[in-house]
Amino acid sequence: NFYRKQGVDFLKGRFPIWAERTGLAPLQLKFNRATTRWGSCNSKKQINMNWKLICHASHLIDYVIVHELCHLKHMNHSEHFWNLLGSFMPEYQVYEKILDEQITVSRFLNVSN
How far apart are alpha carbons 82 and 92 in whole angstroms? Predict the structure, then answer.
């Protein structure tokens, strides 16, 4: 419960910063403990974020936030999407690789709620 609260609070604090920088803001922000995704965005402009991101460095958390915000404009992984993401985070490929390599970091948070 401690990590969940810390994760949600941290993510809630970072979203307004990146929304202002990118000019992109979700209509709704939700938090979950998904097993296969750090974040997701749907056509209703709702973003779901995995609170377990709290186990990662802040620059990796920011990458996931910006990634999902960019989906508000491009609901795919097209060249336009990656160009937009790269305009805010030129090193996004490095961050994505690190997150892939650290997939097991938050496993200790496999809780029932």
Answer: 9
